[in-house]
Design brief:
Helix content is 60%, strand content 18%. With 100 residues, it is an alpha+beta fold.
């Protein structure tokens, strides 16, 4: 009857979920804003691992600009994580025969 085995499919799905979880832990992206004035490192779970602010960015006292730069760097980091995870997930779905 076509050989459909729900247990095998569930096992493959669980294995793929574990692989994705590991990939999320191992993925690290870096994004910058303001010509490198602000940089952020983020993992695949979109947790900020490091945030660096160039002391020159603070000297002017423009807090609103600094807030905008931090926001831009974090948003770019999130975009890069999404891109990396989409790339990984696409490959995994192809392995399951679902991406065809």
């Amino acid at each position: 009857m076509g050989g459909f085995n729900i247990n095998e499919m569930m096992s493959m799905a669980k294995q793929q979920a574990e692989t994705l979880q590991k990939k999320m832990e191992d993925t690290v992206v870096e994004a910058t804003a303001g010509g490198g004035s602000v940089s952020v490192k983020m993992n695949g779970r979109k947790q900020i691992l490091a945030l660096k602010i160039d002391p020159e960015a603070v000297k002017g006292g423009d807090v609103e600009m600094l807030q905008d730069l931090v926001t831009a760097a974090v948003n770019e980091g999130c975009r890069k994580v999404d891109e990396a995870m989409q790339s990984s997930l696409g490959g995994m779905l192809g392995g399951l025969g679902l991406g065809d």
